[in-house]
Amino acid sequence: PSAPRHTNRLINEKSPYLLQHAHNPVDWYPWGQEAFDKAKTENKLIFLSVGYSTCHWCHVMEEESFKSEEIGEIMNEHFVCIKVDREERPDVDKVYMTFVQATSGGGGWPMSVWLTPDLKPFAGGTYFPPEDGIHRVGFRTVLLRIAEQWEENKDALLESSQRILEALRCTSEIRVQGQESPPPAKEVMDTCFQQLSRSYDEDYGGFSKSPKFPTPVNLNFLFTYWALHRTTPEGARALQMALHTLKMMAHGGIHDHIGQGFHRYSTDQHWHVPHFEKMLYDQGQLAAMYSRAFQISGDEFFADVVRDILLYVSRDLSDRAGGFYSAEDADSYPTTTSREKREGAFCVWAAKELRALLPDPVEGATEGTTLGDVFMHHYGVEEAGNVDPMKDPYQELKGKNVLIAHCSPELTAARFGLQPSRLSALLQECRQRLSSARAQRPRPHLDTKMLAAWNGLMISGFAQAGAALAEQGYVSRAAQAAAFLRTHLFDPDSGRLLRSCYQGKDNSVEQSAVPIQGFLEDYVFVIQALFDLYEASLEQGWLEWALHLQHMQDKLFWDPKGFAYFSTEAGDPSLLLRLKDDQDGAEPTPNSITVTNLLRAACYSGHMDWVEKAGKILAAFSERLQKIPITLPEMVRATAVFHHTLKQVIVCGDPQGEDIKEMLHCIRSVFSPNKVLMVADGDSTGFLYRQLPFLASLERKDGKATAYICSNFTCSLPVTSVQELRRMLRP
User: Fold this and answer.
1) Where are the alpha helices (DSSP H) in 379-471?
2) Residue range(s) defining the domain that contains residue 407
């Protein structure tokens, strides 16, 4: 390729998203003092563009507008232009997304916001086409109008931005009202269940018509609701809703049947045509959900999906040093000679292509049947393509097929006169052949940024899968990733987490010149991961680090006046609002997870002030939990755990003993949302014994593996029977 005509300051950044824009004609600045000073010195407005490297519409806006010489000239003449990677700086993204949602009724990425020189927003939106259309004003027109307004009505714009900021400050505040206490668990749980039940799709699972998102937070809530109501019709329905949704997702096109893992979301009701990017946070949470589905149902189908997700992450999203990359893009070049990328090109198939790859006759099947016939029938392949044109507005998928398991294996086997076991082997052979063919295609862009929070979610996925499936290799992979975090995303001098690091040259791991400090979500998801890893590995060092990070989280983010945790630290003058997330989305809101983290931390440390803090978070969100609990299903779940009190399940003895292993296997195979596991190994100098002196009084009974189930450090009689233990573990 020829040398680029333009290079801007983003060339010095580490973020893959910012580097994608380093050769735009736009004179981009990263978020920082240099840009702010320029805006003030030259009295210019700021144009802020926020996105991420695997965002389809971010690519579109770059191609149409940010690579345009004419639009670049307008932007450079009238604005100081700042680019932000929302995954690197969720704090900046959240402040201005709050503004865009409040003023336009919607949000998304790319996010486009115009700010005064003192960073106050006054106009914004998401994607803009470059030129005016029938229904939409073009980006060039918007730029020129705003520049004109600044020249002619500067004082009015400044006044308007100040009013907007004050209104946002009032509406976004979450704080405890008076003497409010945690809301009652039963009412909040029942209301949330009813709201989810009403939005549930009986045919295809999920909780909307389209687009349809995986929403692990909803599934996690339903599993807990079932565990607490397992003998009632409502409990049975909750379980059916969760398991059916997980099965339909796994059969659907949102699941990559050839390359494993899950795409971001489905554009239709049937989980068929996805938005093809793959995000680390989805893989981590879905691995945990499918592990729980296996724990509850014992159905190997769910265990196979767990293995599928973790194979994808291990192969395609893993850094050699042990960390996990952030995402894979939706767009790629269809062939090595293509000049334009297309969404889904890496994943979709023409019927002709499949017939050429799978021509072999199938012995024992109906006469004339080929591998292609069997595979294409099972995965809903059509000669003209199986994508509804309404779901493909730019015709990127015309004539192509997104694989979706339309038939049960039994029906497909019967159709071709095959035994189900033979069909399974044939489909596996087909998938391997297609995987080899797909490997010859140009791969989508890989975002090799490594984020503490998302690595935490993935560590939880590996640790929980390792425990539920009794797969030690998954636990070891979780431990490797946790060690990576401690080496590359933790500053031992300050005791603080860092937000991000990056794959460097020659497979090294690099850090920004000025590292980004960890946000609340980084602490919360890493602490959760370390608790999960301790329960899977019983290595007390992870527990010790988790409790250290919990103390640090309290120090940096706790709101002593309004209760709950802020998303960001105090003291950054460039952040106009200090917010608390109030909605579980693609990821649970940090305060939701923190409630359970605090209860677990108290069980492992004896520090009961953490239980009090958990109650204060629930009190701060009490009004929202009682009115619209469906927006916070993970916090609703945590409310139930808070009121039911966690059970400390303590096993006495050497974790390597065979009798202890049997008992641990029993504990890990039972889904119990309100338990914490620990082993009293007799080492009185160990971390747990120093935290919980009462452990020294617990002994093995009759030389056998012995468990105690304790509540608020008051223990049951010793249990030596695995069957009795299984019964007692139920909520």
Assistant:
1) 409-416, 420-438, 452-469
2) 347-440
* Alpha helices by DSSP H, 128-153: 139-152
CB-based contact 719:706 (threshold 8 Å) = yes
Domain boundary among 148, 172, 196: 172
Summarised one tens digit per residue, pLDDT across range 86-116 is: 999 999 999 999 999 999 888 999 999 999 9
CB atoms within 10 A of CB 218: 24
Cβ of 203: how many Cβ atoms within 10 Å? 10
What would the two tokens of residue 567 be? 């998303």
Distances (CA, A) of 695 to 605, 609, 685, 726: 12, 20, 12, 22
- Output the average pLDDT for the chain: 96
pLDDT above 70: residue 211: yes
Please determine, for residue 152, whether its predicted confidence score (pLDDT) is greater than 90.
Answer: yes
0.90 exceeded by pTM:
yes
Domain harbouring 131, CATH code: 3.40.30.10
Q: By three-state DSSP, how is residue 370 classified?
A: strand
What is the number of domains present in the chain? 3
In a domain, 393, yes or no: yes
Evaluate whether 12 touches 29 at the Cβ level (below 8 Å): no
Contact 140, 147 (CB under 8 A): no
Prior bond to 110 cis, omega within 30?
A: yes
Band (pLDDT 50/70/90 cuts) for residue 656 is confident
Q: What is the pLDDT of residues 33-87, one digit of tens each?
A: 999 999 999 999 999 999 999 999 999 999 999 999 999 999 999 999 999 999 9
**Per-residue confidence at 394, pLDDT binned at 50, 70, 90?**
confident
Instruction: Count Cβ atoms below 10 Å from residue 101 Cβ, excluding itself.
Output: 14
651: CB partners within 8 A, 6+ apart: 660, 663, 664, 667, 677, 678, 679, 680, 705, 706, 707
> What is the per-residue DSSP string for 672-728?
-TTEEEEEE-S-TTSHHHHH-GGGGG---BTTB-EEEEEETTEE---B--HHHHHHH
Last residue of a domain, one of 126, 157, 172: 172
Cα of 462 vs its chain's centroid, Å = 14
25 in a structural domain: yes
* Strand 79-85 with 500-503, pairing: unpaired
Distance in angstroms between the alpha carbons of the first and the last residue of the chain: 63
Starting at the earlier edge strand, list the strands of the sheet with 79-85: 28-30, 79-85, 45-51, 111-115, 121-125
Interval 169-179 mean pLDDT: 86
